[in-house]
Amino acid sequence: MNENIVNFVYLIAGVLFILGIKGLTKPKTAVRGNMLSALGMLIAVVVTLLNMNTIDYSYIVAGVLVGSIVGSIMALRIQMTSMPQMVALLNGFGGGASLTIALAEYYTKLGTTPASFAELLNPVVADSAAFGAGPEGTVALLAIGLTVLIGALTLTGSLVAFAKLQELMKKSYGLPGGPIGNALFLIAALVAVALVVVNPGNVAAMVAVVALALLLGLFLVMPIGGADMPVVIALLNSYSGIAAALAGFILGNTVLIIAGSLVGTSGLILTRIMCVAMNRSLANVLFGKMAAGGETIDADEVYAGKVTSAQPDEVAMLLETAQRVVIVPGYGMAMAQAQHAVRELADAMEAKGVEVEYGIHPVAGRMPGHMNVLLAEAEVPYDNLVEMDRINPTFEDTDVVIVIGANDVTNPMARDVEGSPIYGMPILNVDKAKTVVVIKRSLSPGFAGLPNPLFAMDHTLMVYGDGKKAVVEMTTALNQA
């Protein structure tokens, strides 16, 4: 196929990727954006296959069939509440694919195929010119080494993130010295990459890169709690994109470079946004340590004798006379799978002339946009999902706020208590509303381990129990009123 035609088609695919990402920034255009990106990738894959002169399509067809079957089963069986785990797993697959490509290219250029694990370590007399003449060969080897490093790190890090979100791994482990230990692992891996660049036949150094990177991925993510996964998932997504872009350099594939660069940069931007929203340092995230800090605050002093509980039917009486209600969802709603029940409650209120909106915090849940995905599944109108910056000024004119499972993102300490671990974190100012109803199983703290003074305020009512059950009972009582 003519090279100019191939590059032109790649350009079209790149434009579709950009339009797709732009569409994903808003719930109303997210589906269209996803379809545009998928179309761009389909075009890129087809043109790439047609442009290859000698290729055995049997393996490709087999891979497409197996991948399609596995992907379809996963997509059909996965619950929206488990979407963060799915995203983490897909990030890992992306990193693993880049790792495999880099290793295959490395051994192909060396002209050797190891038949056993022992042969992996055998040094090879290699001509660096096989990877390109002069600086070109150096760049090629550097791209291979970095792709192996980032791909392997992303693979194991994403698997740990999946295990934590799936609650398969409930304890946090880490290297002695924390960030220092991780930094030493990273330095050792980079030294191994340098050894490969200097001597391409140093197979043991390449194996060391793989081993060190796999371990680094484990130790970076294992110390991080499951509630901090929005930042981790965004970061791992960026890593997978960077690895894909480097794989594009290795293969000389323009569209792979474009796609990987878009994913990598957008992931880094999203990571930064998540860090700001959670009052975290990006440096701490990169070294697998979430800053805590602050003094221990006694929950008994915050709550003792000040918490007022209520029953769902009592809340229904408040909702019946309200003019404006804002629903604030959190991870508790996801765990209770209460999104459909919440939609039914909103419908019941709207039938009585109540204005209903949803206040969405950017890091509520276990991944960016988690609440948007859940509420979209329940067919909540996109226009009713209001971002934090736009909803905050309206709370003073709100009759009732219903908080379902959200904790730290509504904690006034982030705004009022200087020195607390979450001080400076942007929150939803729900305490400004006339009445606040919090649906929660108990007074247990969120990921920051802090009590929430909101629960003890005079105008706050605590409804204890399963979120879905409580919402259903409110809807029943409201419909019977």
Helix/strand layout:
Blueprint: H1 3-23, H2 30-51, H3 57-77, H4 83-110, H5 117-120, H6 135-165, H7 179-198, H8 203-221, H9 229-251, H10 254-278, H11 282-286, H12 299-303, H13 312-321, E1 324-329, H14 331-336, H15 339-351, E2 355-360, H16 370-377, E3 385-387, H17 388-391, E4 400-404, H18 413-416, E5 435-440, E6 460-464, H19 467-480
* SSE pattern: HHHHHHHHHHHHHEHHEHEHEHEEH
Total helix count? 19
Distance between the termini: 71 Å
**Quaternary structure classification:** single chain
Strand order of the largest sheet: 3-2-1-4-5-6
* Structural class designation: alpha/beta
Domain count, please report it.
3
Describe the structure.
Helices cover 59% and strands 6% of the residues. The protein is an alpha/beta fold. It has a six-stranded parallel β-sheet with strand order 3-2-1-4-5-6. Helix 1 (3-23) runs antiparallel to helix 2, helix 1 (3-23) runs parallel beside helix 10 and helix 4 (83-110) packs parallel to helix 9 (229-251). It is elongated and about 80 Å long.
